[in-house]
Amino acid sequence: MTVTDLDVPVHDLPLFPLTRHTPKLFGEFFALALGMTDDTGFKMRKHGEAFRLLPALPRPLSFPIELYIDHWAGESILITSPRLMQEVYALPPEAIDEAASKKWSRFVFGAQAPFVLAGRDHQTARQALAPELTPAAVERYRELSNDVLDSMIDRLAIGRPIKLHQFYAAFAQEVILRFAFGIDDQAQLDRLRRTLNRAIEHCTGTGRRRALLGFMAGAASRGFKAGSDELPRYLAAGRKIRRETDALIQHKIDELRSRPNDSFASRLIARAETDPFWTDKVLRDMLATILIAGHDTSVTAYDWATEFLLHDDDARKTLVAEAKLAATDTYAQAVNVEALRLKAPVWGTQVFTKQDIALDGHRVRKNTWIFGVTTAVHYDEELYPEPGRFLPERFFGTTPDRHGFLAFGAGRHRCPGSNFFFAEAGIVLHRMFGRLEMRPMLDHVDDTVMTFGFFNRPKNGTEVVVLRRRESREVPAFTPAEQTSAGVCPRATSLDNPDKELLA
Ligand code: HEM
Question: Of 435, 430, 434, 432, which is closest to residue 480 (Cα–Cα)?
Fold first, then answer.
């Protein structure tokens, strides 16, 4: 509903934070984005369901942000409730732009990555992704993932501290590389995995928190060049990594063009033969997106689910019993959803208004940035009683509210990879906890460190000591009876699926 359609009077959102709360709220927001505090997003609920982050910034003060979001009018609004998230995503497509505020991400994913595409181009990209990520399609990787993880578990050191974040990253990188390129040459896979790992650590590594500022300044300076996704010269390390990864991706595209195989990249290349949309640059941006978005957030989610289980004896016992029986993965999936609720790997979902809109009876002006604070929404007490507690049982037999569970975002850019994630995450929890007895190095669930402004990680990398390991043959692997949605959290797959029509 746009403001002109309204038959009730509308008022501008109150300048609520322009009180003694303003500096505190402002401080909370940026301390979190810069990785200087634990995930305090949920605390923002105390400021209300919708409020301005700052009073509207007049020009020239708004100018630095305009470099990241074209046409920004100096207004920013934070939302903390499922009710208002629903209002935002129920707005007609012409009222909001879901890609505008992700302009900076093109320096990593590319100027034609799905994140920043809109309209028909975005539809075409989603159309290519949708059939690859259905519940049935992702089941094709189950056996491979079980084998890769089991052999990695066989090689894990016993009796000394190891960081599971790195272990999970190595696993997820191998699987996503095989998904993207269908590689079966282990030496080539290891080479590509090392490059991917270097790229991801360069962006989201916990040791590189301050690098974000340099990157954002660089992105702003390049913002002047419409469509450019080349980093400025002074970000030499980033440029070098980008050059190397681009060369490797192009090499794989060329190789698969002459020798196609059963992989996502091969099927994309086949599309390129008949559809001029799929230039080599678009192929590169899609593949870079899948390689990065398709594993890094999943690794964080494995970390948090592991953290919660390590510090909750009852939940761990239930999970271990389920893993040993291998008849279902229902409990593992409830753990995964609950961990995503408490510690969403991406801490916000954002849109930009293209028209004046009404939000909760208030006028929100055209060209305003709206940020849904995921953890705040995930702490809604009506939907999730005792929201701060880890209670996987709350997801038995229920569907998380469509706008009250935002781990995978919302709207047209909602993550297409949730089926892939749940299939892999079920395997990770069953094999890790079914085969290993582990002692955490911390006596509490770790704190968050926000990396690259947006991505939540456990500060200490989920450090454990493995006390005992069972042979893989002692713990059967779960296989869903039907190659459909079985084995994948029904609650998660029934969430808003923007690709339904694409698959019809
Ligand atoms: C726990 C795991 C994951 C989380 C929390 C997650 C989160 C998200 C979020 C919040 C978005 C929306 C960003 C936006 O609004 O622009 C997104 C987009 C995306 N995700 Fe995921 N993701 C996960 C796993 C995956 C996996 C496994 C894949 C692929 C195999 C994947 C591929 C993508 C792609 C391609 C997009 C861009 C979609 C678009 O712009 O249309 N993600 N993800």
Answer: 430
Angle between helices 280-293 and 164-181 (to 10 degrees): 150
Between the CA atoms of 325, 330, 331 and 333, what dihedral angle is there, to the nearest 10 degrees? Answer: 130
pTM (2 d.p.): 0.92
SS3 category, 156: coil
Atom 1 in ligand 1: residue holding the nearest Cα: 298
Atom of ligand 1 lying closest to residue 289 CA: 35
Rounded distance from Cα 8 to ligand 1 centre (Å):
37
Instruction: Give me the pLDDT at residue 179, please.
Output: 97
State in Å: Cα 14 to ligand 1 middle: 34
* Separation CA 333–CA 341 (nearest Å): 12
Q: What is the pLDDT of residues 59-101, one digit of tens each?
A: 888 877 787 888 888 888 999 999 999 999 999 999 999 998 8
Beta strands in 53-197 (DSSP E): 75-79, 96-97, 161-163
The Cα–Cα gap between 168 and 407 comes to: 19
The residues pairing with 302 across neighbouring beta strands, listed in sequence order, are none
Average pLDDT over residues 223-234: 80
> What does the chain come to in residues?
504
Report the percentage of the chain scoring pLDDT > 90.
Answer: 64
If you average pLDDT over residues 30-52, what whole number do you get? 82
Element (H, E) at 11: strand 11-12
Strand residue runs (E) in 56-193: 75-79, 96-97, 161-163
| CB burial readout 50-72, b (16+ within 10 A) else e | bbbbbebbeeeebeeebbbbeeb
Q: In this structure, how many other beta carbons lie within 10 angstroms of the beta carbon of residue 177?
A: 24
Distance 346 CA to ligand 1 centre (A): 9
Kindly report the backbone phi and psi dihedral angles of residue 268, in degrees, each rounded to the nearest multiple of 5, phi listed first: -65, -45
CB-based pocket (< 6 A), ligand 1: 102, 114-115, 126, 129, 289-290, 293-294, 297-298, 301, 345-346, 349, 407-409, 413, 415-417, 420-421
Model confidence pLDDT, tens digit, residues 298-311: 999 999 999 999 99
